[in-house]
Amino acid sequence: MEALYKHQIDFISYLQRLLQEGTFTSTYKFAFLHALADICIEKEIPDNGRLVISFAEIVDKLIVLYWQHAMPFNEELPTGALLQSTDNQAKIITDITELQQNGIRNLDQAKQSPYWKSIYRNTMNTLKQGPLWRLQVLSRQEDCYLFPHIKNRDYIELNPGIADCFRQFHDLVVQFARQGWIEKVSKIQQNQSVIGRAGELSDFLFGTSRNSLKSASLVLKDIQQGNCFYCQKPLKGNAEVDHFIPFTKYNNDLAHNFVLAHKACNNNKRDYLAAPVHRDKWQEQNLVLNTSQITRELANYFVCDPKRTAHVANWAYDIAEKNGNKFWLATKDVFI
Ligand SMILES: [Zn+2]
Description:
Layout: H1 2-21, H2 28-42, E1 52-54, H3 55-67, H4 91-101, H5 107-111, H6 116-129, H7 131-134, E2 137-138, E3 141-142, E4 155-157, H8 162-168, H9 170-187, H10 189-192, H11 198-206, H12 210-223, E5 239-243, E6 258-262, H13 263-269, E7 273-274, H14 276-289, H15 291-298, H16 306-322, E8 327-330, E9 334-335
Parallel strand pairs: 7-8
Antiparallel strand pairs: 1-4, 2-3, 5-6, 8-9
């Protein structure tokens, strides 16, 4: 047990050093760190504790993370998008902007489009020339604590125990990465004149698109036959789409993670995980009975990946049980 604690403290200390001693001229390193944390909870960790992550997986994830950032923020900026690098606009942003201007709405559509080859190649180059190895350069010296620096491979292999630490401290890593990311964006001179309050920037860069939630609402209303997922009573007019695994724990929108609930039920659940009885029902509703309907109807708006969604749920419940967290059962603060 002591060895485990030592390992976890080392991990956090390394993370602190990384953010303090690393140099960041663009936001790529924050995105890469965020990507690693997300991938570690979206996959199963092998028994030997060494998670292998292909460069292709990282490229996909970077594109998803930057997607919202490439949207127009203010027309006074050269392309409307916030700058993500001190020198020129980050290549990934101009590439995604081009996709968006051609009506492409998500990663899946991008992969099927004629633009994919070039954005994939560009992002791969950026990854290899930048954050992949530079992330672990602290005070100008390489310290490969997360994964060894081995050339001529198209994947990285996390050192033993690192994936577990990313799973244990996912919220913390993501918070660190986002904070650094937001700070970097807000310090770039050309952005400064158009940025208002910090809260707005955070919502813009990391919030959920409200429009897409409407389409989720329609599908779920049909699946749940007009009833609230949690209390089973008729929804009438006050339905809200709820992230079953709360958005604060895992801030990506996966279509199979949504349920429809009363505003009151949703508000009362807040950022808690729902009780295991709800989890069983969610699994049956979204990952067994209606999996293909959800994919069919929401693939234009959200990432549809039932397997990944199941992994994320396993991760969230494992950590909550390990930490002795309470689970939300019903409105008026009923917990178990
Ligand atoms: Zn309800």
